[in-house]
Amino acid sequence: MSASGAAVVALHPEATADPHTIRWVVPAGTLPFVGAPKAVPAALQALRDGGTLTSIVVEPTAVLLSTDGDWRTLGAPVRKALAEALAEPSGWVAPAQPGSVLASAVEEVIAGEVGEYVRSHGGRARLMRVEGSVATIALDGSCSSCPARGVTLGLRFGKAVDALCPGAEVVLEENGKPLLLRWGRR
């Protein structure tokens, strides 16, 4: 808790390919949506209104902030404003068409280390659909008939998705039908 009694959210900055954008990593589930927020708490809104921030985008485990300025100069005040804003989650308003946090988490897993593992074995993972807290994926290529696909789903895919989107469930689909292979909350 901070001196004001608000919860303190852990965050740290990571560089991105764009030198004007910093990815501020936050715990999974900090904000319940992904995309460009329609509104943000006053501390962050003041930086956006004043032109310091040119873009704010929420990811499952990060907030991307962009500026036309120099991060060496702006880093500390932006961090302070973001920390204040994250301590006030009710002040964040999802975009009119918010992206699914779970869909974004699954796509991040597919694009990352787990997807690379699947591709290195001649397979391909695809997000088929998201319904509530259940993501349905398909494993194609050599993974479609692999007897270890349940291990891949549970030990790799399920854990990686759960780390980004706690409480989610991942279901494997084959030929348009869900298999009994499920990982996550039940």
UniProtKB/TrEMBL annotation:
Q: Name one GO molecular function term.
A: iron ion binding
The protein's matches in Pfam families, at most eight in alphabetical order, are given as: NifU
GO annotation, biological process: iron-sulfur cluster assembly
- Where would you find the membrane-spanning parts of this chain? none
Limits of the NIF system FeS cluster assembly NifU C-terminal domain: 106-154
Q: Kindly give the SUPFAM superfamilies that the UniProt entry links to this protein.
A: Fe-S cluster assembly (FSCA) domain-like
Function of the protein: May be involved in the formation or repair of [Fe-S] clusters present in iron-sulfur proteins.
The molecule here is called NifU family protein
In its UniProt entry, the species of origin is given as Raineyella fluvialis
